[in-house]
Amino acid sequence: MLREMFPPERTYLLPALHYLQEEFGHLPDWALQTVAWHLRVPPSEVYGAATSYSELRIDAPGRHLVRVCNGLSCWHNGGRSILELLSGQLGVQPGETGTNSRVTLEETPCGFLCPMAPVVEVDGRWRGRVAAADIPRLVKELT
Fold it and tell me: What order do you get walking across the sheet with 125-127 strand by strand?
């Protein structure tokens, strides 16, 4: 009876997850459980939403977050080699956090900056037309 009076509030699921991501930098397990409880949505549905969007993350990132766009435009214009160079210079594989939680390297499906391809996001700031020659300077900024 009570469940029928107060149906799930799925409308607020993504805004709640985005808010928590902004506050904590990631979505801790306890936060996902709290969202499920408050919105009366099954925890599995909350977890599914949290893992379906590339801008949301379950694991805490390193102090620096580097994301390389792997969209068609970026990949065609050298994004793959940029990712490989960054991975080699930072000593971390995509999807992993480097030593001492210093840097997390990720791929993102699209940076929505196709005319500026290839693009790399460093700590929330997008950089366009990144070339191999830019990588040493970019890595130096992260150390």
Answer: 96-97, 103-108, 64-69, 120-122, 125-127
What is the reported pTM?
0.76
Residues 6 or more apart whose CB falls under 8 angstroms from that of 41 comprise 8, 9, 10, 13, 35
> What is the per-residue pLDDT for 1?
46
**Residue range 64-142, CATH number:** 3.40.30.10
The predicted pLDDT at position 4 comes to 59
Domain boundaries, the chain: 2-52, 64-142
Question: Are the beta carbons of 95 and 42 closer than 8 angstroms?
Answer: no
Distance in angstroms (rounded) separating the CA atoms of residues 54 and 37: 24
